[in-house]
């Protein structure tokens, strides 16, 4: 089968790999029907993910059909249409029992797919702990609507949940890329008074506004972000800030635009070390929460998608076949052609 493989720093290739096989009784084999490229794949490509293992098939955001299950798999059956959770988790360790599946202590726990074990930019993929890592897609939800369930939508959902948003709050989201847009989509579930989207890309800001995800959009460099947000909040600052950009100054912007006692959720995956200037923020009494996502809510997200309350399908701006994916990487990495997300068919 064709697969995208991470070789070494900066090298990814589309090549032939053998079909995956069941290795553990809790595994399932999924025929990938739709997959995508995530910015985390680009971080792996840049060698910015130290735990990524060269030789691994990339891809951790995909949907498919179950073709085979191990003898201990109970919930999932061959023939099921499923969305795949970015995180594999045992469900039994200290962290899993508390819902912190990102830190599952199993050797394949946390973000392993498409990083430490073969992922889904391929015709087929092996999913460990299939009963935990697969969510059945109801008939009224399309593959495109379910594609982001286990990764960027899970991330937005988790971020919004830990953001402690209260009705009528002011929420600021830095970064209107795919994950930023998902964060806005999920923040809406908590009925804030307003969502302020901040990005240098006006096309993405317009999309956020057009889709009803953002009420106010601000462009750094052109507008005084801190001043504008204070103006909108009687001088206080935002009640919750989500930093989803991971840019040069965006971490500093995040704590500066937060009001005293705000929650600042750091969703972004940085490629460089950030500075926490504690003397400057003394007395602001901020609460910082950091990623990565605990992908514990895939079923809730699927239920909300099935009843029309959470649909991230609009993020798909580009479609291609797996044999065209190297070109798609080029477009996605360089944000060409106003790309938000690709849907790639193996
Ligand atoms: Zn991802
Ligand atoms: Zn665990």
Automatic annotation (TrEMBL):
Q: What Pfam families does the record tag this protein with? A: ADH_N (PF08240), ADH_zinc_N (PF00107)
Listed InterPro entries: ADH-like_C, ADH-like_N, ADH_Zn_CS, GroES-like_sf, NAD(P)-bd_dom_sf
Going by the UniProt record, its keywords in alphabetical order are:
Metal-binding, Oxidoreductase, Zinc
Obligatory cofactor(s): Zn(2+)
Give start and end of each Alcohol dehydrogenase-like C-terminal domain: 178-288
User: What GO terms are given for molecular function?
Assistant: oxidoreductase activity; zinc ion binding
* Statement: the UniProt record of this protein carries the keyword Ubl conjugation: no
Q: Which residues form the Alcohol dehydrogenase-like N-terminal domain?
A: 25-129
- Which CDD domains does UniProt cross-reference here? FDH_like
Q: Kindly give the PANTHER family that the UniProt entry links to this protein.
A: NADP-DEPENDENT ISOPROPANOL DEHYDROGENASE, ZINC-TYPE ALCOHOL DEHYDROGENASE-LIKE
Task: Write out the similarity annotation.
Answer: Belongs to the zinc-containing alcohol dehydrogenase family.
Any idea what this protein is called? Zinc-binding dehydrogenase
- Source species of the chain: Mediterraneibacter catenae
Where is the organism placed in the taxonomic lineage, from the top?
Bacteria, Bacillati, Bacillota, Clostridia, Lachnospirales
């Amino acid at each position: 089968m064709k697969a995208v493989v991470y070789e070494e720093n900066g090298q990814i290739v589309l090549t032939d790999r053998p079909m995956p096989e069941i290795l553990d009784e809790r595994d399932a084999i999924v025929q990938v029907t739709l997959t995508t490229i995530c910015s985390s794949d680009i971080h792996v490509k840049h060698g910015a993910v130290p735990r990524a293992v060269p030789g691994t098939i990339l891809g951790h955001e995909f949907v498919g059909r179950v073709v085979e299950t191990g003898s201990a798999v109970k919930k999932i059956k061959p023939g099921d249409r499923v969305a795949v959770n970015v995180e594999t988790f045992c469900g039994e360790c200290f962290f899993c029992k508390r819902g912190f599946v990102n830190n599952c202590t199993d050797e394949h726990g946390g973000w392993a797919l498409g990083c430490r074990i073969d992922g889904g930019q391929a015709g087929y993929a092996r999913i460990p702990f299939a009963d935990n890592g697969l969510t059945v897609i109801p008939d009224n939800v399309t593959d495109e609507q379910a594609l982001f369930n286990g990764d960027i939508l899970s991330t937005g959902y988790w971020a919004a949940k830990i953001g402690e948003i209260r009705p009528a709050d002011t929420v600021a989201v830095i970064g209107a890329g795919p994950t930023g847009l998902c964060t806005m989509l999920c923040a809406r579930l908590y009925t804030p008074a307003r969502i302020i989207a901040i990005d240098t890309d006006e096309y993405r800001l317009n999309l956020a506004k057009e889709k009803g995800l953002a009420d106010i959009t601000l462009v750094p460099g052109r507008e005084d972000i801190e001043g504008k947000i204070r103006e909108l909040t009687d001088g206080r600052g935002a009640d919750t800030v989500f930093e989803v950009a991971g840019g040069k100054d965006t971490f500093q912007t995040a704590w500066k635009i937060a009001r005293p006692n705000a929650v600042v959720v750091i969703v972004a995956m940085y490629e460089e070390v950030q500075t926490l200037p504690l003397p400057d923020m003394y007395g602001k009494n901020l609460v910082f929460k950091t990623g990565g996502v605990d992908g514990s809510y895939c079923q809730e997200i699927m239920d909300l998608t099935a009843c029309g309350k959470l649909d991230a399908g609009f993020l798909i701006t580009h479609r291609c076949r797996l044999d065209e994916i190297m070109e798609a990487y080029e477009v996605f990495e360089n944000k060409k052609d106003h790309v938000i997300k690709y849907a790639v068919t193996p």
